[in-house]
Each structure stands twice: as C-alpha cells, then as structure tokens.
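Hi R.,

As promised on Friday, here is the backbone we talked about, encoded as structure tokens. Could you run it through your design pipeline when you get a chance and send me back a sequence?
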C-alpha cells in the first residue's frame, strides 16, 4: 500500500485495515461476498452478474458487510457501460467499490447525470474506498451539482475515504466536493472542466482530520470556461495538495478563502500552468513549497495575470510562507510590508509587481522545454506537452521547484504500478 505522510494517516489505522477487510480487534478471516451492478443484470439479488442490480440506485446496501470483506463491483462491459442514476453510498461504510470485474466486464464505467441534480456519487456519513482500476476507469460527468460529494460529519466516521483512478468532468458545481470532517484521500484522479474542479469546505468550524490530494491532474480544456482549480471555501481546511499538475486552461489554480488557519493547508511539489487570472490566489495567507509556476506575459486576451495574489493588506506579515519554488512570469500581487513569514530559496524570472517578496534577483531557471517563445495565445496542447523539469545547466539551487514537472510525468505515474 502507498505510504502517505505520517501526519495524515496517524489516526487512520482502523480505516486502512478496514479497506483490506480487517479490524484491529478481529484479524480472523471472514467469508467475503462480492456484489454486482450491471445494466445486463436482472436486478434480483446482486450476487452474480446474471442477478446484478441493474442501476446504481438499486444497490441494497444492507446486504454488504465491511466486517465480512464484502465488495461492490460495477460492470464496465467489454469497452464501456453507462449508468444514469446516482450512486448513494449507504450501509455501515468501508465497503470497497471497484470496477475491472474480469473478462467482459473491464470496460470503462461512466456515471452520466445528463443534467440531473446529483451528485453522481454521494457519500453521506460513511467512509468509502472507490477505485476505478486504471486511469479514468470510472468517469462521473454531467451532474448539475457535484460529481462526487463527501459529506461525512465529525464523529460519524473516524477514518478516511479514498478515491483512486476517477475522472470527474463537466459537472455543474464541482468535480469533487469535500464537505467531510474526516480524512479524504484523492489519488490518481483526472479532474477537469467542472465549474470548480475541487471544492473544499469542511462542515465544522474546526477540521482536525487532514485530507490529501495527490497525483491528480486538474485542468480545463477551454480558457474561456473560467473553471477554478482547487478552492478552499471555508475556515480551517486542513488539506495537503502534493505532486499534482494544476492547469492549463483554468481561471485560478488555487483559491484560498480568508481562513483563520490557512497555514494548515499546504501546497507542495505541484506544477501550476498558466491560469488566466492567478495561479495561486489567497484572501489571507500562502503556504507553499517546491512549486513550479509558469505564466505567459498576459492571458489570451492580453490582460496581465498573477502568479501570486494575496488580498489581505491589514497584516501582510502573516501571509508569507513561500519556499524553494520557481516562478516564471506573472505578477507578484502581494502587499508591500514587513515579512515575518518564510520566503526563501525562491527563483523568479520575468515576474513583475512586488518581486522583492520572492527575492532580489531574476534568473532564467532553464526548463527542458524552451518556454521563452510561448506567446500569450500559446495553445493548451503546447502547455500540456511542455516539460518544466530543470536542465542540467540550470542555475536553480538543488531541491527547488516541483518534483512533478510535466503532464506526461504525472500520467506515467498514474499509469504505473500501485494500489
């Protein structure tokens, strides 16, 4: 199993073992039952492909027991199988929901709302483990509200919900909506062309269970849809965003509300590509390290755009935590004032605005792809194909910038072995 950060999973052993069908107090093997959903089933008892429940809203959750290692398998047919009803996860929680059901059932599973309100997958008050089996193996699209909503309330489920290999696209409010006060891990997900791709707003005032978004590609296929990347919409979100590619095509890559505990949300080892308004925008604070941010001189309409935006000018000294990052292009729109926070080991080139915030010198980081000739109307395809890794002759100090340096690198990692 992939090892996540110690802080993230220190309270999640019960959850992780639960995913494997174990508990800390009962390690004896139990008789596991597989249950099935298929458009070709007769909708009787869900115990075989023949008797499978024939839509996602037909699952009888009371039959599935996490204590018995039960599992729900959704049919993808030979190539693809499309469902039009939402999947509302019920029962006691902890049930693995998977695709890739064997020969004749390994096609792509699509949950298409066709404009219904949704959400497409709703996870209320329980934990869940959902795995699409491969890149984009489970697609959730076309819902008026959210593709996936996780809305566990504090105290109802003490472990994590885990989403792997999902594609979430063209949903009206968000691709993933994290209202959860429990831990959520989103790994190897492709999230694009949703109004807000990832919306994080914990339901309680104090969210002490950290979540993780890792190895995800979050982008838009059209600059003029004004899609947001990751939006922290309420106070006290405790979330780590790591090894993701954010962009291109977005209006804003990361958006932080004026939260009172902004420092508990951290962006690290992410590649931010050419948002039309701002790669990172914050109402109050920034906490980022080992980020590579690229921007053309202006957006496709010729309007300047920001690599960093911080709006709070009342106390700028508490807004400065930016380390070991690379900023190529864009406006540094940060209040001028004493900086009591940490801004060190950063590299910038072709930036404007309050550049002193990031450092005193300008130097070309020398990416593998020569981005110096990219115009304001550079195509999304060019940006997607670009490699922002550092050349061997780069002047940037070792350990700076993102370890995730291209879309190709991320997709190769998503397609690699794991989970």
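Update: got your reply. Pasting your designed sequence below so it's all in one thread:
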């Amino acid at each position: 199993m992939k090892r996540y950060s110690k802080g993230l999973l220190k309270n999640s052993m019960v959850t992780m073992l639960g995913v494997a069908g174990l508990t800390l107090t009962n390690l004896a093997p139990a008789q596991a039952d597989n249950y099935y959903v298929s458009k070709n089933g007769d909708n009787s008892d869900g115990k075989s492909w023949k008797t499978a429940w024939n839509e996602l809203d037909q699952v009888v959750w009371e039959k599935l027991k996490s204590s018995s290692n039960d599992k729900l398998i959704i049919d993808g047919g030979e190539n693809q199988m499309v469902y039009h009803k939402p999947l509302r996860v019920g029962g006691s929680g902890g049930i693995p929901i998977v695709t890739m059901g064997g020969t004749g059932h390994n096609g792509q599973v699509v949950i298409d709302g066709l404009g219904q309100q949704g959400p497409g997958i709703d996870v209320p008050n329980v934990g869940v483990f959902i795995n699409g089996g491969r890149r984009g193996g489970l697609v959730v699209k076309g819902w008026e509200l959210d593709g996936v909503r996780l809305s566990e309330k504090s105290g109802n489920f003490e472990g994590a919900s885990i989403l792997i290999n999902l594609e979430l696209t063209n949903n009206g409010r968000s691709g993933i909506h994290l209202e959860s006060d429990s831990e959520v891990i989103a790994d190897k997900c492709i999230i694009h062309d949703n109004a807000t791709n990832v919306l994080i707003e914990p339901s309680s005032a104090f969210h002490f269970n950290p979540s993780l978004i890792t190895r995800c590609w979050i982008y838009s296929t059209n600059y003029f849809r004004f899609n947001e990347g990751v939006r922290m919409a309420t106070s006290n979100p405790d979330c780590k965003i790591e090894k993701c590619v954010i962009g291109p095509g977005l209006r804003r890559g990361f958006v932080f509300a004026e939260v009172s505990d902004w420092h508990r949300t951290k962006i690290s080892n992410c590649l931010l590509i050419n948002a039309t308004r701002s790669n990172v925008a914050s109402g109050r604070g920034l906490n980022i390290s080992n980020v590579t941010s690229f921007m053309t001189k202006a957006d496709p309409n010729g309007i300047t755009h920001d690599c960093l935006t911080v709006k709070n000018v009342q106390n700028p000294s508490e807004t400065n935590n930016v380390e070991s990052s690379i900023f190529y292009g864009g406006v540094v729109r940060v209040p001028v004032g004493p900086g009591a926070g940490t801004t060190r080991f950063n590299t910038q080139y072709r930036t404007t605005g309050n550049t002193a915030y990031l450092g005193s010198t300008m130097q070309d980081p020398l990416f593998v792809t020569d981005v110096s000739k990219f115009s304001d109307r550079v195509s999304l395809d060019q940006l997607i194909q670009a490699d922002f890794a550092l050349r061997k002759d780069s002047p940037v100090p070792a350990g700076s910038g993102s370890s995730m340096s291209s879309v190709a690198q991320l997709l190769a990692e998503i397609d690699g072995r794991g989970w």
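One thing I noticed while checking it: Residues 1-28, 154-158 have pLDDT under 50 and may be disordered.

Thanks again,
M.
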